[in-house]
Amino acid sequence: MKIFLDTANIDEIREAHSWGILDGVTTNPSLVAKEGKDFLDVVRQICAIVPGPVSAEVVATTTDDMIREGREIMRKIGAPNVVIKIPMIREGLRAIRTLSSEGIRVNTTLIFSSPQALLAAKAGAAYVSPFIGRLDDISHVGMDIVRDIRVIFDNYEFKCGILAASIRNPLHVVDAARAGADVATMPFGVLEAIIRHPLTDVGLKKFLKDWEKLPQQMRAGS
Ligand code: E4P
Fold first, then answer.
1. 201: closest CA among 209, 190, 189?
2. CA 98 – CA 76 distance, rounded (Å)
3. d(CA 9, CA 218)
4. What angle (nearest 5°) sits at the alpha carbon of residue 218, between those of residues 214 and 222?
């Protein structure tokens, strides 16, 4: 499963990229607004750091405007790894079809049901983003739709990637991997949390303490 960061914060992206495990980045209008920086500049900077897919979302809501905005973002950023995020609304379907047929990869966002994902894949989306945490928030098991989408895509050999989004905790990451999601996109805090385990820290501390008991000349290589 690929690991994406769900952020527009350049420091977080640089840091995670330096660990050698970052496959891509997703942004959305809320995340960009939180940083208070120019949208295109931010996406340009992210694309320069991360070679994998970087999602940038349109804010238009009519078909023609979404297509225009998607093309514009691609042209102005000029990086091959940009993926255009289109919301899963009626007007979005033809925008997905048109942009995909031009070779622009589309990530369909705000997916809350498996039939929505089916339609996005049929329209030619490169990714669908089911929002797990927001479904959990309203007492639906968000991960169930990832499981359903996996079955549907496998049944019909859709090449569309399942990008588990709105991930809120480490358990979501584990469940997404078990459900066969192609990607999990997560906030920096969740990525940090899945690195850590208290027993790893306790174990390392003990190894280093015990090592001190070995006379200096017996510590090969140190
Ligand atoms: C996905 O691409 C979205 O940016 C994101 O995962 C939304 O997460 P949230 O529900 O925590 O805002």
1. 209
2. 19
3. 46
4. 95
- Write the pLDDT tens digit of every residue in 50-92: 999 999 999 999 999 999 999 999 999 999 999 999 999 999 9
List, in sequence order, every residue forming a beta bridge with 162; answer none if it has no partner: 128
For the chain, the first-to-last Cα distance in angstroms comes to 37
Longest dimension (CA), the chain: 74
What DSSP element (H or E) covers 58? none
39/27 Cα distance (integer angstroms): 10
SS (H, E, C) 48-108: HHCCCCEEEECCCCCHHHHHHHHHHHHHHHCCCCEEEEEECCHHHHHHHHHHHHCCCCEEE
**For ligand 1, atom 12: residue with the closest CA:** 166
Q: What is the pTM assigned to this prediction?
A: 0.95
DSSP for 153-213? HHHTT--PEEEEBS--SHHHHHHHHHTT-SEEEE-HHHHHHHH--HHHHHHHHHHHHHHHT
Enumerate residues lining ligand 1, CB below 6 A: 6, 26, 28, 109, 129, 131, 133-134, 165-166, 185
CA–CA separation, 116 and 153 (whole Å): 12
DSSP state of 131: B
H/E stretch holding 81 reads none
Q: Which residues of 78-102 are buried (b: 16+ CB within 10 A; e: fewer)?
A: eeebbbbbbbbeebbbebbbbbbee
Strand partners, 185: 4
Confidence band (pLDDT; 50, 70, 90) for 143? very high
From 85, 122, 205, 213, active-site residue: 85
